[in-house]
Give the backbone structure.
Amino acid sequence: MVSSIAADSGIFPGQSTSALASQEPHVHDLAFAECFERDYDFVWRSLRRLGVVASAVDDAAQDVFVVASKRWRQIEAGKERAFLFGTAARMAANYRRKRSQHAPDEDSLLSVEHPGPSPHQSLQAKQERELLDRVLDCIPDGQREVFVLFELESMTMIEIASTLDLAPGTVASRLRRARARFQREVARLSVQREGSMGDV
């Protein structure tokens, strides 16, 4: 499945991941191809959950792996996912800053599933994603990253601390504040939605 995603995404046009290893060693190393196979979906989901819309996420994922390929020899073994997430987080932050200067994109930010469900099946999920998009956009970047990794990626505190290069206590503090902000925003937006429905 990931191999087909790689070909479709345009990260390496016309090439399957098996072809990566046959290119220049510093870029298309076997370990890099394995990292791509293992972590592409993680990077794709992370970009979506950090605010990149569907129409831009494939290009953003491509950019993350292009950066990784150029710096591959500098990445410490075992820290590949941390590097990928850090790169994705910076790209998402830059994307959100640019997006804030233009009209809002109607695309949902958190569609982490590939197309498939019928329109009827997708309606409720779409509404829920849109609410979650708006809530996540209200959480400061550092807290949002911890929240996404813990609540949506099911990573442990230790894994998050390693991925973000933070002290475990800092991770716990950011997660606590992110959860509190999340609950406040859900309550606020739910009241707004109920009010707007009552006006119809």
User: Anything to note?
Assistant: Residues 1-23, 108-115 have pLDDT under 50 and may be disordered. The domain at 1-105 is CATH 1.10.1740 (Rna Polymerase Sigma Factor; Chain: A). The chain is about 70% helix and 0% strand. The chain has two domains: 1-105, 118-200.
